[in-house]
């Protein structure tokens, strides 16, 4: 793969609170995040040349497609071109990657990327049905398999092969709820304990309700420009050192080994190569914990620990703030919330706040470099971004 | 789940009623569902229809307790990935067994069962499920 022609930097971010916003629709959410990002970047809307917005299933959640145009319209950015990206729960990381391509190629100089999802206007079983669209609908969902069911089968197999325990799964949720206590935009500000997880109802064995990220509404937006121009806008640009994406089979059943996500391994290799870094160079990471098992599997795949040692890594506190590699300082999908189309962009917002040193009580001290890992479906799409305060090669 | 037109189910009869997939003559890999080209050999490969024996082992499984629309009356039900003896893997439900009796590695065989009914059209959907090997 060729290296980008122009490096890319982030000059502004904006995010809504995640959670149930009964009084706000999809268009209100993206507008709120967009306006915040534009304000944070200290630019004017007219500086934006392109909008790339992710949404996983606005059609099934609110009956609205064509959300590229909707986002541009309500953010007051007509007649600028707008693109919708869709890659299930990785929709807005893919939006960021498309934005990076637009800037790297020289085609645009200022791009607003982000995503939004409005999930609470439908009832629970309808949301379950919409999310099942991230998997192989004809061959998995047809037989009554659900999205939590997919990760439950990965968990079952991981426990079988590596001895990962029920308690280790719980510890992921507990840590992420602890972190969310200090994140104002998080859906939950509520500590949980081992007992709470075990008392929560089974969704798909062995996964319980408190292993699952919640249904949420929310939006996030990021303003990107060529790295060469970033200092014109801000003293603390955050540089995108790598933007990588990989694909794997849509169906989980097509994979040789479901205790690993091969697109994780592929995308991680690409990302570290692009950034000229290794896992030990990362100071903190947002890792896609749609279900607790995914944080364990993905930390292994990303090289933060050995294969099979993900459970132990959580147990030993290595992924806590202050640990060897803090994971999901924002609260993660589990406690910050998971408005699917906004999630990837939301992870980037967390990294930017951390790298600027603006993360308050959840600040990782001295954080220079962060990694965001965003999964679509059961790992059919994986997008990884590495962000740094340092530009690296000039 | 969404309600689909009859044509969707009609074209899936062979696959879902007969567990028919495909086999690549060149690399001998089996695929379910059947594919038009072999992802390994691509245009060099030669695909043929293959009816699976239906015998296999449980690779992984879960018990669904929060169902999608259309499956509400069936919970709790077991869904598994089955390793077919020819080498492909498939997803379906495990029946004629209590959830707590299922284990990884358990031998199973395919059987023909009702999957669910569509609420609005009244279509009854059928397909293969698996049961413990007798
Ligand atoms: Zn072949």
What does this protein look like?
The complex is a heterodimer of chains A (394) and B (134). Chain A is an alpha/beta fold and 394 residues long. Helix content of chain A is 35%, strand content 17%. Chain A has 2 domains: 8-123 and 216-238, Thiolase/Chalcone synthase (Peroxisomal Thiolase, Chain A, domain 1, 3-Layer(aba) Sandwich), CATH 3.40.47.10; 144-211 and 241-388, 3-Layer(aba) Sandwich (Peroxisomal Thiolase, Chain A, domain 1). Chain A has 13 helices and 11 strands. In chain A, a hairpin with a 4-residue loop joins strand 10 and strand 11 (381-388). In chain A, helix 7 packs across helix 10 (292-301). The longest helix of chain A has 17 residues, at 340-356. Chain A is globular and about 55 Å long. The model of chain A has no long low-confidence stretch (mean pLDDT 96). With 134 residues, chain B is mainly β. Chain B contains 2 helices and 8 strands. In chain B, a hairpin with a 4-residue loop joins strand 5 and strand 6 (89-94). Classes of the chains: A alpha/beta (394), B mainly beta (134). Chain A binds chain B through residues 124-126, 128-129, 132, 138-146, 148-149, 152-154, 156-157, 160, 201-207, 251-254, 258, and chain B through 1-2, 12, 16, 33, 59-69, 71-72, 74, 77, 79-81, 89-93, 99, 104, 115-116, 125, 127, 129. The complex binds zinc ion. Zinc ion binds at residues 24, 26-27, 29, 38, 40-41, 45 of chain B.
